[in-house]
Write a structure and sequence with these properties.
Helix content: 25-40%
Bound molecules: adenosine monophosphate
Number of strands: 16
Strand order of the largest sheet: 1-5-6-11-10-9-7-8
């Protein structure tokens, strides 16, 4: 029989590495709570048109990377429907914002999510077909201050605090402004005009983008196209006064709290809904897939999905990449966790009593490994040495007297400990 394996681009996350995933998620929850964010969980699949409208038909994500299928009707009352595994979570959050009329509270909605996303990309280190994102959105009616540049700066400052608290050093924050919904068409027209005479000199992908979505040309990583891209007009020259002032206010708030950044006029990002501020945090240790996270403002997205005016700003971090970065700092491996004690029953007749002792210690908050009475003492010692800091021997005598024999591996010392004091002794 052929062996079944995890599908290309997907992987199993195993202990002890999953400890690191939990640590990343716990840190995110802790930091986001300090900024008063609440958690949202949206479905993993949605109506395909949510992404077509929200992310943009011409993006790589929608045009070639989505997992889409025709979901058959199961009853006469149902219609078959085109569904898609979510390739990102912002569109789902904004759909939920509209569906649940969250804007009617008049308050800013500050929502974060943690979960898997799906894109049929070419797998490589740091790029998977199922990957995890931790993201957040600040969205609300303009009267709640959702358009304020302070929101952009606060979100970016939160991310720098999160990375610091997680212990990821050496990141770079790159920022740009892609202008308002009215700045972008002017810029796109100028790009198109500048690209027309030179596009033949570029890769086939960029020749196509020059026609369909010229902004995407700036995203290109193909070194052969660099020379042409360097000659193209810059978005900064097309921003109206309001967009310029907005961007300047974001920068001055970041300066005020000492968050360092670089400005990259080519940072337009791969999704169509962005307006004004766009940003990315990159890390040199990641290789080709060097973006730890990306985000930006999306002032027209709610209207694109048929909702009320609801400007917003958000980001998504690649959790896989956060973990890769932490792993590199730990020399690629996480030390397996050590239990406080390994209980070794001497004979199968003592197995039940050993479980009762383990229960006692676990209720006291200790992590305990339970051996088996069929093990010879030598085997129990070997197993204990690999998984726990100490071994507790439970024979008939120990059970009767209530005095247990404990050996602590770090010191090599063997002592007798009364059962009532055992939990404190092992702590
Ligand atoms: P995006 O939703 O494309 O703006 O991506 C936001 C972040 O998600 C990126 O900066 C990456 O860290 C991460 N990411 C995006 N696509 C993948 C993928 N295929 N595999 C792993 N991480 C990804």
């Amino acid at each position: 029989m052929t062996l079944l394996k995890a599908v290309r681009g997907t992987r199993d996350l195993l202990p002890p590495e999953t400890e690191l995933w939990n640590h990343v998620e716990a840190t995110a929850r802790r930091v986001f709570a300090r900024y008063n964010f609440g958690e949202i969980r949206t479905p993993i699949f949605e109506d395909t048109s949510l992404f077509a409208r929200g992310v943009g038909e011409e993006t790589d994500i929608v045009s070639k990377e989505m997992y889409t299928w025709e979901d058959r009707a199961r009853a006469q009352s149902e219609k078959s429907q085109s569904l898609t595994l979510r390739p990102e979570n912002t569109a789902g959050v904004v759909r939920a914002y509209i569906e649940h009329k969250l804007g009617e509270s008049g308050l800013l909605q500050k929502l974060y999510y943690i979960g898997p996303q799906f894109r049929r990309e070419r797998p490589q280190k740091g790029r998977y077909r199922q990957f995890w994102q931790i993201g957040a959105e600040v969205i609300g009616p303009p009267s709640a201050g959702s358009e304020s540049p302070l929101r952009d700066a606060e979100v970016i400052e939160m991310l720098s605090s999160f990375l610091d608290e997680l212990g990821i050093t050496g990141w770079t924050l790159v920022l740009n402004s892609v202008g308002s919904a009215s700045d972008r068409p002017k810029y796109v027209a100028a790009l198109r005009e500048a690209l027309a005479p030179v596009k033949d000199q570029m890769s086939l992908d960029n020749q196509r983008r020059a026609e369909t979505n010229p902004l995407r040309v700036l995203d290109s990583k193909d070194p052969a196209d660099e020379a042409v891209i360097a000659t193209l007009p810059k978005i900064a020259d097309f921003l109206d006064d309001e967009s310029k002032a907005h961007f300047a206010a974001v920068l001055s708030a970041l300066d005020a709290c000492g968050v360092k950044y670089e400005i990259n006029p080519r940072l337009v990002r791969g999704l169509d809904y962005y307006t004004r501020t766009t940003f990315e945090f990159t890390h040199g240790g990641l290789g080709a897939q060097n973006a730890l996270l990306g985000g930006g403002r999306y002032d027209g997205l709610s209207e694109m999905l048929g909702g009320p005016k609801a400007p917003g700003i958000g980001f998504a971090m690649g959790e896989d990449r956060l973990v890769l970065t932490l792993l590199a700092a730990l020399d690629q491996s996480v030390a397996p966790p050590q239990a406080a004690a390994f209980i070794a029953p001497l004979g199968e007749g003592l197995n039940a009593a050993a479980l009762a002792l383990a229960r006692e210690l676990r209720h006291a908050g200790l992590s305990v490994e339970l051996g088996d009475g069929s093990f010879r003492l030598k085997k129990s010692f070997e197993a204990a040495d690999k998984t726990a800091r100490a071994i507790v021997i439970l024979g008939e005598d120990e059970l009767k007297s209530g005095i247990l024999t404990v050996k602590t591996f770090a010191t090599g010392v063997q002592t007798k400990v009364p059962r009532a004091e055992l939990a404190v002794f092992l702590q």
